[in-house]
Amino acid sequence: MNHALSTHLFVNHRLTTALLSRIEQAGIPAVEIFCARQHLNYHSKAQVAELGHWFRDSEIKLHSLHSPMYTDEIWGRSGPHAVITITEPVKTKRLPMVDEIKRALEIAEVVPFKYLIQHIGVGGEEFDLRKFDAAFSALEELSLFARQRGVEILLENIPNQLSSAERLLQFIEMTHIGLNFVFDTGHANMNEGVETAFNLMKGRIRSTHIHDNNGHDDIHLFPFLSEGGTIDWKKAMQLLRSRQDQYPLLLELKERPELANPLESVKEIFRRLEEQEAEQ
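-> structure tokens emitted (280 positions)
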């Protein structure tokens, strides 16, 4: 299968061309850039332009961009006002958040990419039809803005009552918005289970987020290499291989101090995932 890496692994560090060069030298052919302002300040024309020059001269591809979740540089710890969510029912509060996502989408004018990964709501958020309505309004506007820049928005299954696999299908059926999905193994493991979620989402999966956890906490463990992971990777690879032409294996991992060379660990994970498939 095709391989890709999310820069979420380095999200607490500034995204530099030197870091991207290290990823390229590790033999990873594509990346997803995580839009967190301490990592990629999408408001900074200078940083975006620098990345644009680098990608134009590089063989590595920008597969996707993860939509920003906070407006600050400290993961929302500055307060609730920093949270970006398209489920905000009050239009006057939601529109500035939609505009913030548009600023990230404008990166496509400098560095083309295929997909924007978008959450519906935040972790643990309860179901409310008014939030579905708000998300639909936001996504209508964002989808048009994205398409004008050659980008498709993908909805991600996340651990809340709005974005389980079943809820995402309900959202698509209710709104007829026609969006596709990114399948997150770790989030599925926390919700209905990897197999159930995959089978519900499979027809619309266009990308993946591959990571592990204990079934309760969204800790983005390294498959095989971190203690506490509970996903059956042999079974998961059977599922993922069944539609392998639809998406890459894209690792979305959290930096771990005990792994001194994370890119070597990434290469080992890809090797072991492919070996799981080879055993079938």
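Strands lie at 3-6, 30-34, 61-66, 115-118, 152-156, 180-184, 205-209, 249-251.
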